[in-house]
Amino acid sequence: xxxxxxxxxxxxxxxxxxxxxxxxxxxxxxxxxxxxxxxxxxxxxxxxxxxxxxxxxxxxxxxxxxxxxxxxxxxxxxxxxxxxxxxxxxxxxxxxxxxxxxxxxxxxxxxxxxxxxxxxxxxxxxxxxxxxxxxxxxxxxxxxxxxxxxxxxxxxxxxxxxxxxxxxxxxxxxxxxxxxxxxxxxxxxxxxxxxxxxxxxxxxxxxxxxxxxxxxxxxxxxxxxxxxxxxxxxxxxxxxxxxxxxxxxxxxxxxxxxxxxxxxxxxxxxxxxxxxxxxxxxxxxxxxxxxxxxxxxxxxxxxxxxxxxxxxxxxxxxxxxxxxxxxxxxxxxxxxxxxxxxxxxxxxxxxxxxxxxxxxxxxxxxxxxxxxxxxxxxxxxxxxxxxxxxxxxxxxxxxxxxxxxxxxxxxxxxxxxxxxxxxxxxxxxxxxx
Length: 433
Ligand SMILES: Cc1cc2nc3c(=O)[nH]c(=O)nc-3n(C[C@H](O)[C@H](O)[C@H](O)COP(=O)(O)OP(=O)(O)OC[C@H]3O[C@@H](n4cnc5c(N)ncnc54)[C@H](O)[C@@H]3O)c2cc1C
Fold this sequence. Notes:
The protein is α/β, with parallel strands linked by helices. The chain folds into two domains: 5-79 and 181-257 and 365-423, FAD/NAD(P)-binding domain (3-Layer(bba) Sandwich), CATH 3.50.50; 87-173 and 263-351, Alpha-Beta Complex (Polyamine Oxidase, Chain A, domain 2), CATH 3.90.660.10. Helix content is 32%, strand content 21%. It contains 13 helices and 22 strands. The chain has helices at 14-25, 66-74, 105-112, 125-131, 136-150, 159-167, 185-195, 235-238, 249-256, 312-320, 322-337, 374-380, 400-423, and strands spanning 5-10, 30-33, 45-47, 53-55, 60-61, 79-81, 89-91, 98-100, 178-180, 199-200, 205-210, 215-219, 223-231, 242-244, 258-260, 263-269, 282-285, 291-295, 304-310, 346-351, 364-366, 385-387. Strands 1, 2, 10, 11, 12, 13, 14 and 22 form an eight-stranded mixed β-sheet that branches. A seven-stranded mixed β-sheet has the order 8-7-17-18-19-16-20. β18 and β19 form a beta hairpin. α1 runs parallel beside α7, α1 (14-25) runs parallel beside α13 (400-423) and α9 crosses α12. The longest helix has 24 residues, at 400-423.
């Protein structure tokens, strides 16, 4: 059978782009099929009226993320050091009482927990919080962190999953240390530029057929044939793709135990950076759960705050409409920045909650308390069909760094499989160059 490539990669987020690059570096021919009209997935940019490129999705990186930092250096992209130093302040509705998230004893208890501890089996984060001897304020703050970062209600996320994911985030410095001057999407563009003309945009994959030697990947426009396929899309989106023959039952189960969250990202631009250093690092609010704001000014120019609304609050605000969200955020930022704070130049909102191709949050989250083996099963995949996404990374899952790591690891497994096939007696398979 004629083949279009050795490997077809479905999805041009950082997982797919990093995987495609690794496969090509190992001498394999690759085609990348992307549903959207641009690359980057959950990393996306938009242009502000002054011509600046800003992040609508994934943005922050740090020195402890080696893969992404290497790519940034290779692409010679300019980084901006953020002002956030890792000590988010909680402000009450009237911003007077303040406390630091870092001091929350519940964070230390979570870090000390063992995800395999039988005593934690079946507990949701909400159940675990109920059992904790801590102040209401500490519990509220912890819950806000969960809603803000995991973008789902705490009573449906298994506590072991939180502990396990948190352990794989090994940053000692603030994760919000830097962002790219021209947006993280400029890094996705740089990666994709190396892969052109092998990236096909606006080409969603609907079905994958596999037999002993090939895969046939179906898109709306045509069918493509390869030796292997890598499904580099988040788990919830991966289960939309139809497989012939059907995937084995354990794999169907492993894909079925995830849920997408909800997050809204809002940029408020100001004429100048008028606020005092006291409020500039990062804040959350005491009276609502899952609301955070960070200073993303570039030096003293391009003065701006970014506000994240995550989890149940994002769904509630979304239902009340964009005008409500904009008004509420303006009011809260006004109160935070001082009575005489000028109005922002503009308020630009990106609502990810119903995103067609990436789910609605920073990441999909396991919501089945029994699904301890789901990630391992997906990483293993099935003959000729591999799965990868940031969620499945052994390090920094749910971050851009995790996507690159997951993509590279999956590419390594596929290229090893191709080499083993080529070396098998009587293989007779030729690579497509
Ligand atoms: C608002 C927001 C803020 C974030 N902030 C940060 C941050 O500051 N720092 C950080 O490190 N991370 C951040 N993240 C998370 C980070 O963006 C993701 O972890 C990472 O980009 C995921 O990459 P991925 O390639 O695994 O998945 P995705 O980026 O989702 O890529 C999957 C790709 O597959 C495509 N696709 C899906 N289905 C199909 C199909 N059937 N056929 C073809 N293509 C398909 C999608 O269009 C998409 O392009 C943020 C995410 C969001 C949403």
